[in-house]
Amino acid sequence: MQIRIKSGSYKIRGKEVELSGMVFPMVEQFKVGAQGGYVTVDGRAIAGFPDRNIKIKVDSIDDYEVTKAKTTKREETDEETVERLRERFSILEDMTKACKKGTVRAMIVTGPPGVGKSFGVEKVLNKHELVHEIANDDRPRKFEFVKGAMSAIGLYCKLFNFADKDNVLVFDDCDSVLQDDLSLNILKAALDSKKSRRICWNTDSFKLRNEGVPDHFEFKGSAIFITNIKFDNVKSKKLRDHLLAIESRCHYIDLTIDTEREKMLRIQQIVGDGMLNEHELAPEVHEEVVDFIDINKKGLRELSLRTVLKVADLAKAFPNNWQAMAENTVLRRS
To answer: CA-CA distance, 75 to 81, in Å (whole number)?
Structure first.
């Protein structure tokens, strides 16, 4: 059922927005809650609103009407998109802190390559380690980024080495552990929702004996999976079943940077926040680098923060002809 709001509002990122005249799919009729009257609608239907059911503040059932009109079409403004992306990455940092504390056992972070997934996680974990580095204690680091391929027994050993509380293992583009049956069963045990997470290796192994790894242990650490795979889009039934088994044990963050426009706004935001400051380039050169990326975005090998850094490296190394150098190194040849 569609409803048109005659008089009502909703708070979007701290600002009360008047919604008079907008048409939403209704989820639930008028109710009165602790903060007054509201009608529940599907926020996902209109750009700029949260991807969930939302409560629109109305005084009575007379403040909206049933209609056959189509859902309001609305384009998310650049400012709203930037704020949405900033909010998602802020959530990523908060969830990483929770993984470090052990209050969150596991999370999956998905998004396109080169948008800052790994950077956001590593920044938080490094900040925790900095305290111990300043104290100059000799304890081993309590987190590790695991990249590339990994065998099941290698996974078992790595989990043992980071089994203590407040240890974090980050699997960064290490998708092989999500596709192997034995590795998957080990991860299921490590991420189990039970109070005690006991992991066993029930076959004889020279590697375990040689490295002093027991055939069973309790895992108290946390795990973070950073991947370019968007779980909802996987077509292979076997892989989809594997991913669902892990997803059911993890929090899932989709950074939702899917379009060229969103990627460019993310680039502009991060450069504006100081990403290129270490290059010691003039502010106008920062603008020129971003402008080069923007006007050539359809011809780039990859539209990402990594490409921005590559172009900035060229601007630093070849101040007089960096654009010609970039043309030959980051653009696809037609």
So the answer is: 10
Residue 58 CA to its chain's centroid (Å): 34
- Rounded distance between C-alpha atoms, residue 223 and residue 165, angstroms: 11
Domain boundaries, the chain: 2-67, 80-254, 260-329
**DSSP states along 269-290:** HHHHTTTTGGGT--HHHHHHHH
pLDDT tens-digit profile of 6-57? 999 999 877 899 999 999 999 999 999 999 999 999 999 998 898 899 999 9
**Is 90 exceeded by the pLDDT of residue 243?**
no
Rounded distance between C-alpha atoms, residue 169 and residue 183, angstroms = 15
Which residues on neighbouring strands pair with residue 223, listed in sequence order? 106, 169
Q: What is the mean pLDDT of the chain?
A: 92
CATH number of the domain located at residue range(s) 80-254 in this protein? 3.40.50.300
| CA distances for 10 relative to 37, 104, 260, angstroms | 12, 30, 29
Q: How far apart are CA 130 and CA 77, in angstroms?
A: 38
Is residue 332 within 8 A of residue 300, CB to CB? The reply is: yes
CA-based nearest residue to 312, from 326, 329, 298: 326
pTM for the model: 0.84
E strand or H helix at 55:
strand 53-57
pLDDT tier, 133 (very low <50, low <70, confident <90, very high otherwise): low
